[in-house]
Specification:
The protein is mainly α. It is built from four helices and no strands. The protein has one domain. 92% of the residues lie in helices and 0% in strands. Helix 1 packs antiparallel against helix 3 and helix 3 runs antiparallel to helix 4. The two termini are 20 Å apart.
């Protein structure tokens, strides 16, 4: 997940750098741009670069959301499995609730 997010962030930074280059070149040579009426073309190029950065940001957010959602699903699914199995052990084997909670907490602390 970290590799995908870092790759997406890098793509977004490259798109923002491209947009900054377009602005820098346009402002640096504003007389030439104005004399050839290239303002509209510069704005179009800048907007295209910003659109690429926006798309990269959307993909980065999607990757982050899916990755974090998967991690949380696994975490809470594990908690649910532990509580279910603990309940089964209480009913079938006669364990006490305190011993089941003790085992769950011990496993959580040990896994940290």
């Amino acid at each position: 997940m970290a590799l995908v997010i870092s790759r997406m962030a890098s793509n977004g930074q490259n798109a923002y750098a491209k947009a900054a280059t377009i602005v820098e070149q346009t402002i640096g040579s504003i007389r030439t741009v104005a004399s050839f009426t290239g303002e509209k073309q510069a704005v179009v190029n800048y907007n295209k670069s910003l659109l690429d950065a926006y798309k990269s940001g959307i993909q980065e957010g999607l990757a982050t959301g899916l990755g974090f959602g998967s991690v949380m699903f696994i975490t809470f699914g594990t908690y649910a499995l532990a509580v279910w199995f603990g309940g089964k052990m209480i009913v079938d084997k006669g364990y006490s609730g305190g011993s089941v909670i003790n085992v769950i907490i011990s496993v959580l602390v040990g896994s940290m």
